[in-house]
Amino acid sequence: MSFTNTGFDREEGGNKWQAEIIKNRSSPMERGVDSEVMGGKEGKENICVIGSGDFGRALAGRLATAGYKVTIASRDPDRNRSLIPSGVEISGLSSAATADLVIVAVPKDFYPSIPANLLKGKVVVDVSNRATIRRDSTESQAEQLARLLPQSYVVKSFNVLSAYSLESGGLQGSKQVFVAGDDASARDLVSGVVRGAGFTPVDLGGLSSARTIEDIPVAVFPQWRVPFYIHLAIFIFLYILGFVKYQICWPITWSTDGTFLWHLWNHIPMDNMNKTLAVHALTTLALCYLPGVLAGWLQIYRGTKYSRFPAWLDNWLKMRKQLGLLMLFAASIHACLSVAYMSPTYHGLVYGDPVEASAYVMEGEGWGPKTESLNRTTIKVFGTEKMKWRGECFLMTGVFGFALVVLLGITSLPSVTATMSWKEFAFVQSGLGWTALIFLCAHNMFYGWPYMNGPSCGIPSSFQYALYIPFLTILMKLPMVLPPLSTHLARIRAGYVRTDTQKHSKQEESV
Q1: How many CA atoms lie within 13 A of 138 on its CB side?
Q2: Residue ranges of the alpha helices (H) in 364-421?
C-alpha cells in the first residue's frame, strides 16, 4: 500500500518547507527559525570579517559554528582560500556593504586602507590589540578607527580572546568578553553576537572604555605584582639577615686564631637559601590568614559587617590567593632542597643518635696519594639507631603541613573551585589552612626548640623569628573561635548590627 504526503501542497510556500526538510533533515521550526524569514534571512546577523589573518579566520570559524553567516573580506581572496574554516565564505572587500555587522581584524597601521564608504551606517567591531604595554597615544585604537569611520558605529570587543582560544572550542567558553561603544543599540547587537559565540559579554559603556579593554591583553600579571614584590621583599630581608649572621659574624666570632673562616661562605648558594625559604614560607603563610583575622576584629569593634574596610586591608584581603600560591612555590623549593641534601651533617636530628667509632683515616693533599694517619680519629656512624620522637614529629608535621598547603593550592584553581560548594571551599581554605599553619609551626619548633632562645651576634635564632607573625596570627584568632566572641562574630556576619552603630549610621544619613 502506497501513501503520498500532500500536506505541503495545500499551503502557500509549502515547497520551501519541503525543500528545507529534504536539505537539512529538519523543518525551520524545529531549528528555531520562523517560517516568515525563510525568504533568505535566517534570523542571525550576516557578519563580514575584514582580514584573513589567524585571528580573523579563527573568529569567523567560531561565529560560523555558532550559526552565523560569515564572510571573510580580503583584497586577495585567493591567497588564503585554502585556510578558510569550514562554513565561511571568502570574497572581496565589496561584501562588507551587504553585511549587518562588520568585524575589522587588521592591524592598526592598515586602518586608513579600510573602505569607509562601504561601512556607512554599519556597526563596526574593532578587535585589534597593540603590541606594546604602554600606549603611544591618549586615544585607544578603537577611537582612532572611529575617527576614520565617522559615519559608522564603532564598537570595541573580542580583543581579549586569542586565535587559539577561539579554535579550541570550549576551553574558554565562559570567558568574559568586554564590549564598549558610544551607541547603545550597537553595543547590544555586538553583545548578542558575543553571547551567541559562547562567551559572556560585559558592557563597559562608551568607546572611551576601549582604553581599559586594550590594556587587558598586554598587561603582565597585574594582580600578581604587589604580592610578588611583597614576597621578594620578605625573602631579601630574611636572606640578608641570615647572611650577616652566617657569613659575616660567625666567620669572625668562631675563629680561634683570628683568621676569617672563609669556608662558611660555601653555604651561601644552598644552605642559606634553604634556611631563608623555610622562614619565608612560614611567615607568608601566616600573612595569608592575618588579614582575615584583622577584618574579624574590625567587625567586632564596629559591631557590623556593613562598613567598608580600610583600603590597605581590602587590598590585602584581595591578594591572599596570590600570596598563598607564592608561598607554595617557596615551600616547594624548601621541601625539595631539604630532601636533596638531607644528611647527618645538615639534619642530625633526623638520623638519631650516632655510634662513635675509633679508626685510622687516610690523609693527603688534593689528588695525590694518601697515607694512613698515625693517630686514631673518632668517627660518628649514623643509621644504627632509630630517631627519637622529636625527630619523627619534626618530619611528620612537615610532611602533613606541606601536603595541606599543596591541597590549598590545588583547590584555589578556578577549575577545581567550580566543582566545590561554598561550604566545601571554606572548609578547605579556612579549616585545613589553619591546620597547615599549626602543623608547620610545630615542624619548626620540633627541630629548633634547643636553639629557640639562643641569639647569636645579637640576632635571634631563625627558629624564633620564624614564629613571630604565625604566633601573632594564631593568638589573635583564638578568641574569635571560642565562645562568647565566636557567637557574637557569627551574629555580626549574619547581619546583626549593634544598636549604637545603627544610631550612628542614621545620624550620618540625616546629616
Answers
A1: 0
A2: 389-411, 414-417
Check: CB of residue 158 under 8 Å from CB of residue 167: no
Sign, Cα dihedral of 31, 36, 38, 43: negative
Give me 106's grid cell. Answer: 587588521
Phi first, then psi: give them for residue 221, nearest 5 degrees.
45, 55
Q: CB under 8 Å to 53, separation ≥6 — which residues? A: 105, 106
Binning pLDDT at 50, 70 and 90, where does residue 76 land? confident
How does pLDDT run across 187-202, given as a tens digit for each residue? 999 999 999 998 999 9
Q: What is the mean pLDDT of residues 478-486?
A: 93
pLDDT for 383: 65
Residues 6+ apart with CB under 8 A from 487: none
In whole angstroms, what is the distance from residue 187 CA to residue 203 CA?
Answer: 7
Among positive and negative, which fits the CA dihedral 39, 42, 47, 52? negative
Nearest partner of 171 among 49, 62, 54, judged by Cα: 62
Q: Look-up: residue for cell 630581608?
A: 237
pLDDT given at position 242: 94
pLDDT for the residue 169: 61
303, 500 Cβ separation under 8 angstroms: yes
Query: What are 317-365's pLDDT values in tens digits?
Result: 999 999 999 999 999 999 999 888 777 766 666 666 677 778 877 777 7
Going by C-beta distance under 8 Å and a sequence separation of 6 or more, which residues neighbour residue 238?
276, 279, 280, 283
Which residue has 515547497 as its cell numbers?
A: 15
Neighbouring-strand partners of residue 200: 176
Q: Which residues of 326-339 are buried (b: 16+ CB within 10 A; e: fewer)?
A: bbbebbbbbbebbe
Render pLDDT for 17-63 as a digit per residue (tens, 0 to 9). 344 444 444 433 343 333 333 333 456 889 999 998 899 999 999 99
Rounded to two decimals, the pTM is: 0.73
DSSP structure string for 107-128: -GGGGGGS-GGGGTT-EEEE--
- Using CA atoms, how far apart are residues 67 and 69, in angstroms rounded to an integer? 7
And the C-alpha cell for 223? 594582580
Cell numbers for 101: 555587522
CB atoms within 10 A of CB 434: 17
Q: What is the dihedral of CA 160, 162, 168, 170, to 10 degrees?
A: 0
Is 125:213 a contact under the CB 8 Å cutoff? no
- When pLDDT is averaged across residues 463-476 and rounded to a whole number, the result is 96
Rg of the chain over Cα atoms, rounded to whole angstroms, equals 35
